[in-house]
Amino acid sequence: MPWRNILEIDPGPTVPLRQRIDGLFAQQRATWPALRDGEAALAHLQRKTLSTDISTVIVQRNPARRGSTLAKTDAKAVAARACFLCPDKMPAEERGVAFEDFVVLPNPFPILPLHATIASRDHQPQRIMGRVDAYLRLARDLSPDLAALYNGPRCGASAPDHLHFQAAVASEIPILAQFPPKQRRPHFAHTSRSRRMVVFAGADPARIQRDVDVTIAALAELDPSDAEPMLNLIARFDGRQYLVVLFPRAAHRPVCYFQPEPDQILISPAILEMCGIVVATEEAHYSRVDDRVVEEIYEEVSLAGPQFERLIAALSIGPR
Asked: Which of 38, 52, 144, 252 could cross-link 108 (Cys pair, CB 3.0–4.6 Å)?
């Protein structure tokens, strides 16, 4: 199936993207049972909230996410399977709307409402460098109620061979509540529950793009690999200002992911996990997740303290 078939319901760029997304989801709920069932299941998921004075983490038991949680993303495994973000491998019912050279597609296995994948029309590796400007324009066009998400190819992207972003309802993403507009500086370091992050804020997308690019380049200096440095991103535009949070990563999955039962906890942190929506697929694993487990997971997958200090020193920034 070519992209023109996927885009056949798109009214075109004269209609704002946010409005077209609402129309897309309404059409897909009516014609695609997998999406309708996936969205309906969100209302019945088990959830528990772990709160401190400054942060909230919501643990969600979501069996439909097993495919993503268990995904093998090494080069051999990726080469052996068809790309599910190329149109000829998509379900017959799937449709999308255009954003520049990307296509917005509903996610039939959502974590949050209006969970979407924004896939490049070209099959090219997952890489944010050189595309931060497009990512910020996406955040702008998703405003005011959706956030733009990005998973690096080695820390959360289940399709590391195909460039894509994601989107979801911003009000249900806990990390965003930690940065109210009156407390934001243009560029600062922040730590919360052992998650170390760099935060960018302001009204000028060109400046934010430059700062994000510089930060990724500095991360690359700490990473001997030729691949993109490990990171996750979230961006939101509230109609006046951008807020972008970059999570530098040290590992794809925590130690508990690889433990034998009864100690195993299959949690594979991607951007939404780093933002405070921790997804467990198995009931026994969900029941084991408490504040201590969350802290251990974040500590193990986040950039280590000494390296993070080197990063912020290289960027000449300080804490909020």
From this structure: 38
